[in-house]
């Protein structure tokens, strides 16, 4: 009440002063009363705009329920309807006609202490394709998870969309589309625009600004990662984050199957950016277990839209990273025939083809392996290659299953399974926190091995017994702290850090994490004075953050 008087808002609020706990109760009740996922998303988005701390407190305390709302699968629906749902700016839209003025436009963002940027060009949003400027929902959602799941201050986070047009005819003809209404611009002009964007970010925010690429087309995702990774502090979550979470899940699966990764044969349905990113990290993981690079590559098989990737194919191409995994086998395009020919014990779906793992395919996997590993990772939910119920039913309950989207508990022959979700949110918040706090200038691939190791090491037997190869979603905040600690130790050991090593890394991390508790309204960055202190308002010089 004293704060209300000093701020000049006494009378503008009702008499009762509610505690955080009481406000959370009302917010939770309100969310539960919305009957659609989109309605819940819009309410939460509005809450984030008007009361940031309350939003993040609600999200962190109800993460298992609200994660599917603020991110997949609901964020996919939001991106599809973004023009209709758009209410207020939540990031920066840079269009290709801004070339030459990118840094000046970045200055329009009100927060100057930006440490983490998530950027997309909207060309491949989840499994939904080219959504152009409507892909902004992805950076906004990712950055809210950076705060909720690792404690990075939201003021340090900046979502950006690079609008280069779209090839989606539906959007081009949609009066609600908010982006450039023209075909996607590519080639040298596009690449020069991205080059300027990267340079402008460093000029504006410093050389250790962390830039996370999201949902670029596969052909650009690999190209930009290789082009920028040794020049900027950058990573691609679709390639490296996905790879790390899959590696963590497969390492956990080994405790169930009794078969090491290096002893496995792995078949991917899908040969795009995600598949190649996962395959690359799996090769590194196998090499650590004692096999050569050539042996590791020989254990990985890819299927693209034209069938099994083989050296003598007459249809399809061998362009990009997938050529390294091409085999000297006959051409085949039927998944079940390929499964029976290759005889994998691990089947990974990154195809965006819902239902691609048919009962016949699942039964073939069960015939090949006593404990087949089935990862149906495509998002959103209706793009999953199979559901957990289908996987257990057609493998006689013997499979080890994980999905990319959340599924409810399932029952098979009297046993309840709570399957794991191979969600990148296990990886990128902790990686971002560790990289940001250690002020690394570049992100070596070993960072993602460290993140995968940390997740796999902290999965408990009780979770494996329930069918999950990942810790509970509610443990991600703690996992992020452990990942950040491991990455910071690595950075100091390899002389990659831009700061001196603190006496206690865990204490250092905790000190720099965002607090969801209310602070003193008058002096948010000062020491909180005793209650009987009399403010001299004539001499009071409020901090800039208050102004």
UniProtKB/TrEMBL annotation:
**Residues reported in the UniProt entry to bind a divalent metal cation:** 214-215, 238
What CDD domains does this protein's entry cite? Answer: NAD_bind_1_malic_enz (cd05312)
Record's keyword terms, sorted: Metal-binding, Oxidoreductase
The note describing how and how many cofactors are bound reads: Divalent metal cations. Prefers magnesium or manganese.
Which residues are noted in the entry as (S)-malate-binding?
124, 379, 423
For the biological process aspect of GO, one term held by this record is:
malate metabolic process
Domain Malic enzyme N-terminal: from-to ranges: 48-229
Q: Establish whether keyword Oxidoreductase is in the entry.
A: yes
Q: Which Pfam families match?
A: malic, Malic_M
- Catalytic residue list: 71, 142
Q: Name one GO molecular function term.
A: malate dehydrogenase (decarboxylating) (NADP+) activity
* GO cellular component term of the entry, any: mitochondrion
User: Needs which cofactor?
Assistant: Mn(2+); Mg(2+)
List the PROSITE patterns: MALIC_ENZYMES
Record-annotated Malic enzyme NAD-binding domain positions = 239-492
Cited Gene3D superfamilies? Malic enzyme, N-terminal domain, NAD(P)-binding Rossmann-like Domain
Q: Which family does it belong to?
A: Belongs to the malic enzymes family.
Tell me the NCBIfam families matching this sequence.
Answer: PRK13529.1
Q: What is this protein called?
A: Malic enzyme
Give the originating organism.
Brassicogethes aeneus (Rape pollen beetle)
């Amino acid at each position: 009440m004293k704060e209300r008087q000093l701020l000049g808002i006494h009378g503008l609020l009702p008499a009762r002063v509610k505690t955080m706990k009481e406000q959370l109760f009302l917010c939770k009740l309100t969310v539960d009363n919305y009957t659609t996922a989109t309605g819940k998303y819009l309410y939460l988005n509005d809450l984030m705009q008007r009361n940031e701390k309350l939003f993040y407190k609600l999200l962190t305390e109800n993460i298992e329920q609200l994660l599917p709302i603020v991110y997949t699968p609901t964020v996919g629906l939001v991106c599809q309807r973004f023009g209709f749902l758009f209410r207020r700016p939540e990031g920066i839209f840079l269009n290709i006609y801004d070339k030459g003025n990118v840094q000046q436009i970045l200055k329009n963002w009100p927060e100057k202490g930006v440490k983490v940027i998530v950027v997309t060009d909207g060309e491949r949003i989840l499994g939904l394709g080219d959504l152009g400027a409507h892909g902004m929902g992805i950076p906004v959602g990712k950055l809210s998870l950076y705060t909720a799941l690792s404690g990075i201050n939201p003021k340090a986070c900046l979502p950006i969309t690079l609008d280069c047009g779209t090839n989606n005819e539906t959007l081009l003809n949609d009066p609600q589309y908010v982006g450039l209404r023209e075909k996607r611009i590519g080639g040298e002009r596009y690449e020069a625009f991205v080059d300027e964007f990267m340079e402008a970010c460093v000029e504006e925010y410093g050389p250790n600004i962390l830039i996370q690429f999201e949902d670029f087309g596969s052909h650009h995702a690999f190209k930009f990662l290789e082009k920028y990774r040794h020049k900027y502090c950058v990573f691609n979550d679709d390639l490296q984050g996905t790879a790390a979470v899959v590696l963590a899940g497969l390492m956990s699966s080994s405790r169930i199957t009794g078969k090491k990764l290096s002893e496995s044969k792995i078949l991917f349905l899908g040969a795009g950016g995600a598949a190649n990113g996962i395959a690359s990290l799996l090769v590194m993981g196998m090499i650590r277990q004692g096999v050569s690079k050539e042996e590791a590559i020989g254990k990985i098989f890819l299927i693209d839209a034209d069938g099994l990737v083989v050296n003598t194919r007459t249809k399809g191409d061998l362009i990009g990273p997938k050529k390294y995994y091409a085999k000297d086998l006959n051409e085949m395009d039927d998944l079940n025939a390929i499964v029976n020919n290759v005889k994998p014990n691990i089947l990974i779906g990154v195809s965006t083809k819902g239902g691609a793992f048919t009962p016949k395919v699942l039964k073939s996997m069960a015939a090949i392996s006593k404990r087949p590993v089935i990862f149906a990772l495509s998002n959103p939910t209706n793009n999953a290659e199979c559901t957990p119920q289908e996987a257990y039913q057609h493998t006689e309950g013997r499979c080890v299953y994980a999905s990319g989207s959340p599924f409810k508990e399932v029952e098979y022959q009297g046993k309840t399974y709570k399957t794991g979700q191979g969600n990148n949110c296990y990886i990128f918040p902790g990686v971002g926190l560790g990289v940001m706090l250690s002020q690394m200038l570049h992100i070596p691939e070993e960072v993602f091995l460290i993140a995968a190791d940390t997740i796999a090491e902290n999965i408990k037997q009780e979770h494996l017994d329930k069918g999950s190869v990942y810790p509970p979603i509610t443990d991600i905040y703690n996992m992020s702290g452990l990942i950040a600690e491991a990455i910071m130790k690595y950075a100091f050991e390899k002389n990659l850090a831009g700061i001196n090593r603190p006496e206690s890394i865990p204490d250092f991390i905790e000190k720099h994490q965002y607090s969801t508790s209310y602070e003193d309204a008058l002096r948010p960055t000062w020491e909180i004075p005793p209650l009987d202190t009399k403010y001299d308002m004539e001499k009071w010089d409020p901090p800039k953050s208050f102004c």
